[in-house]
Amino acid sequence: MEQRRVKPYSKDEAMSYAKSVLQSKMNCNIKKISYIGGGSYGYVYLCEIDKSPYKLIMKACRVDGTCQQEAQAIMLLGEDSLIPMPKVLFTELSNNEIPIDFICEEFVKGRNCLSPLLTIFSSKKSKKEFAQRITDAMGFWHSKTNDKFGLIDNAVFDTWLDYYKPFAFEILQTARYLCDKNKLSKDVLLVMEKAWDNFDYIFSEPVENAVLIHGDLNTMNIMADNHLNPTAIIDPLESKWADKEYDLFQLRNLNGDMYNLYETYKRKFPVSEKCDIKCAFYGLYNEIYCNITAGSFNAFLIKPVVKRMNKELAKAGLLSALV
Predict the structure, then answer these.
(1) Which has the closest alpha carbon to 159: 171, 150, 169, 168?
(2) Contacts from 292-299 at CB under 8 Å and sequence distance 24+?
(3) Contacts with 26 (C-beta within 8 Å, 6 or more apart), sequence order
(4) How many CB atoms are closer than 10 A to CB 157?
């Protein structure tokens, strides 16, 4: 498993390319463009132009292939979604003049729900209603099924484990290599190894249906107004036809437990007997996967998923809990 090749363009360079693409595709004048966020793989800009729709979002995708994947996922998830996904206005792939891929999306109002202003100042009733609406939207996506498992643009696997087990093993093999190179903590690898040793136990229940999942539904990717009414769900990542529980571990990431998202979903929809330990496995291996592909390791984000995996292994009688 390799680190993703991220194109080495700065925020300002990408903004300049965004202006050129936008003017060409929309035949407009740009009144204002500003950087509003981003991550390891891209930059996001809020653009104001002199014609309808007047405000829109330009996303610079610094890794080849992610533009098409994300646009396809947004359009698929957005079909009849209970909570809107931003509409894709156009995509523009890199060429000799513009070396970065771009997605142009409609502007959606609100702020992401990682915001402490929403977390701290929202009532218990508002948080409960918010959790109901988010999990209803997930349940709707999870009602859509497919004959095969895998990425939405490459669903070719007959069973979930045909897809997932080799993928997880590749993550583990890379983690072993990085640990040998002193780039990953031995304590993290130890818990990964113990979880892998119990893979057949953790995944003993068959996954009957390949369902549509968002892939990155944490609170950072949920937009809401000041009264915690969801306005949009954004930024799917590697969306799949998958085990629906592969969508659930993200609900506990960041500040998701402050909204009780994970437990709300479990109360409303059927889950497997081993859902908690499966989601702990998914969460740990996904976090290591994200760190591998980004090329850096964030101990702050890794620590809680290691702790949760260890806790679930201990609950199952498979090892003593860490202090």
Answers:
(1) 150
(2) 292/1, 292/3, 292/171, 292/174, 292/175, 292/178, 293/1, 293/2, 293/3, 293/4, 294/3, 294/4, 294/40, 294/41, 295/3, 295/4, 295/6, 295/40, 296/40, 297/183, 297/184, 299/185
(3) 49, 51, 104
(4) 18
- Regions of the chain short of the pLDDT cut 50: 321-323
Q: Say whether the peptide bond before residue 206 is cis (omega within 30 degrees of 0).
A: no
Q: Which two tokens stand for residue 188?
A: 């993290």
Phi and psi at residue 3, in whole multiples of 5°?
-65, 140
What's the rounded Cα separation, in Å, for the pair 88 and 238?
17
For residue 263, count other CB atoms closer than 10 A to its CB. 14
Q: Which pLDDT belongs to residue 150?
A: 98
The pLDDT assigned to 136 comes to 98
Cβ-contact 31, 320 below 8 angstroms = no
Q: What is the pTM of this model?
A: 0.94
Please give the structure tokens belonging to residue 199. Answer: 């893979």
- The one-letter amino acid code at 51 reads K
Q: How far apart are CA 173 and CA 166, in angstroms?
A: 10
pLDDT at 319: 77
Q: Which two tokens stand for residue 84?
A: 């809107």
d(CA 125, CA 108): 24
